[in-house]
Design goal:
By secondary structure, the protein is mostly helical. The chain has one domain. Helix 1 packs antiparallel against helix 2. It is elongated, with a radius of gyration of 17 Å.
Length: about 60
């Protein structure tokens, strides 16, 4: 995993934990937005780091 992916994964986990521990009416919307943004940035960092491989060519096995 790239350095950015680790940072965004950590931020996602911290925001999710803060959301889980927050009282019901205390700034939950910003925490939900932060969790979603950091999670999206984590996935983008994985794609940018080429850690997720995608092979668009469908190959058949010739046994």
């Amino acid at each position: 995993m790239s350095r950015y992916a680790i940072i965004f994964l950590t931020l996602t986990l911290l925001a999710s934990t803060a959301l889980w521990m927050a009282p019901a009416d205390a700034f939950t919307l910003p925490l939900v937005v932060a969790s979603c943004l950091f999670g999206g940035f984590f996935v983008l960092a994985l794609f940018a780091g080429r850690k997720i491989r995608f092979d668009p060519v469908l190959r058949t096995s010739e046994d």
